[in-house]
Design goal:
Order of helices and strands: HEHEHEH
Largest sheet: 3 strands, parallel
Strand order of the largest sheet: 2-1-3
Distance between the termini: 36 Å
Strand content: 15-25%
Amino acid sequence: MGGREPDRVAHSRRVLLDEKGEVLGSTAFAQTLGRWRDDGVREARFLLGAADGFGDAERSEADLLVSFGRATWPHLLARAMLAEQLFRATSILANHPYHREG
């Protein structure tokens, strides 16, 4: 994890929304956030790249690369999709019936 300061590594995660990222289902996304929470991570920073995306150096510094699929999404829509997935993850972790699997 490159030149990160120790506190950032222990208490923060950097997530890049990137076309080369992993396509996670809602439950897997929630489980990742829940695991980080349980490990004492206080902050997750979500970054959305410019039109040309992220470079290899930026990708290598990320804790997680996430893709919303193979389609190209406008930035404003990608933000809304991220907000929805964060809300859904919170409801999954709280065992709230909002999320219906299957």
